[in-house]
Amino acid sequence: MEYAFQVRWGDTDAAGIVFYPNFYKWMDEASHHFFASLGHSTWKWFQEERIGMPIVEAKCQFHVPLFFEDHVCVKSSIDDLREKSFRIQHQFFRGDQLVADGYEVRVWTTFAGDRPKAAPIPAELRENMRQTAAMTTREEGQ
Description:
The chain is α+β, with helices and mostly antiparallel strands. About 30% of the residues lie in helices and about 35% in strands.
């Protein structure tokens, strides 16, 4: 799944280089875009079903800097799918150049009770995620 954007002035530091926390913001945006592309609104899940996907682990490695007005494409894929959690991998490209890569581990969580609680990912969504992961693997093997 791809999520594209252009670096804004406010994303950069005094040296004109993207300030590193923005990569984590963009991974979050790419994750929400990933589910929207599968036909699922994460906001609607939360509003209607009290379901969310909190991040329990995140990492990003930076290879080359990004600058104001760079066009960026984030390629996201599920690389580990479990009963209640998943890991989504993100690769940041400027053209064909890999500029950073990272991942988030998220847990399917219900907020319906007193405290947030991990819950099984619904079977239909798991299957959609599995199919998307398989498609990505096939495309990379070409």
